[in-house]
Amino acid sequence: MYNSPNAVLKGIKALFAKTLQGMQLSEVKKVMENVLSDGAYEDYWIPGNANRIREWIDSIVYSDGKDYKFQIYNKDFGGGFKLKRTTLEDSRKYLGGNVENWVRGLAREWVSLPDEFVGILLEKNGNAFDGTPFFANNRNLDTGSNTIDNIVSGTGTTQAQILADFDNAYNQLVSFKDKNNKPFNKNPKLAVIVPAHLTLTFKKIFSGEIKQLSSSTNIYAGMVEILTNYYQSNSSDDWYLVNLNSSMKPFILQERQKPTWDMKDEKDNVNIKYFTTGRYGYGYGNPLSIIKIDN
């Protein structure tokens, strides 16, 4: 049944699609603005002021803040495996060899790719749309006297320290305002991005399992969604507070081409090559929707 290169490719495509349907989607992807792309790159425009609606009495009042523009380019991604012709020839009913494991493994790679993108962006701390580091103590925006500082100095990883740092980060996040004193993060939907070695600690605190200090209840229970950054070093205790309800999320994921499968059959080669490719872009979005707790 699967003893021809084209039949194997057809079986691979079917198994890949079935595997993707049954897989849990990336959780960290929730902090990424998902954008469909139809070119080599995409342009983004960000107004210097928060969007504002006023009563229309005479004429529309237009924002006069400084505007910013930036681009995110798409990149090629891919992976594959080699299958010996003799293995293929001996397989009549099943895909044979480790083909199914390879296909499922590559499906997992595609699903977790956004997690890897976020891990890279957090570690790198490259420049945001305004030309300054994404995490910075003093952002150069036209916000009047309001200081945009999206870094909180962490105090540690005990329950008391995490809750104290959470309070500081929350207060800082909701305090961001434009020069017209309009808040950027009203009615936030909160999530935290934490390294794998702190995930259980955060789940205990914010699930309500651990009672609030000097109280019979935990007012923080259910307040945040906990997202794990598996790409963060075990030696790093930094974590991040995010507003998922922001007009633009902290990171951007561009989808130019979903993963597809193909093969290369060179008659003089003992192996037939099966490979999957896709095109995505990723980069920094809104630094006003995230706070870094720097430990």
Strand content: 25-35%
Q: How many DSSP-defined strands? A: 11
> Which secondary-structure class do the elements indicate?
alpha/beta
The number of helices is 5
User: Overall 3D geometry?
Assistant: elongated
Low-pLDDT sequence parts:
none
Helical content stands at 10-25%
Give, in spatial order, the strands making up the sheet with the most strands: 5-11-8-6-7
Gyration radius, to the nearest Å?
24 Å
SSE order: HEEEEHHEHEHEEEEE
Number of domains: 2
Termini distance? 57 Å
Q: What do the pLDDT scores average to?
A: 85
Largest sheet: 5 strands, mixed
Which keywords apply here?
4-stranded mixed β-sheet, 2 domains, hypothetical protein PF0899 fold, 5-stranded mixed β-sheet, 295 residues, 27% strand, 11 strands, alpha/beta, 25% helix
Would you summarize the structure shown here?
With 295 residues, this protein is α/β, with parallel strands linked by helices.
Folded structure, characterized:
The protein starts with a helix and ends with a strand. It has helices spanning 5-21, 85-89, 99-124, 159-174, 199-207; strands at 32-36, 41-46, 68-73, 75-84, 151-153, 190-195, 225-229, 239-243, 251-264, 271-284, 290-294. It has five helices and eleven strands, in the order αββββααβαβαβββββ. It has two domains: 5-56 and 76-125 and 255-279, no CATH class; 151-251 and 288-294, hypothetical protein PF0899 fold (2-Layer Sandwich), CATH 3.30.2320. Helix 1 packs across helix 3. It has 295 residues and is an alpha/beta fold.
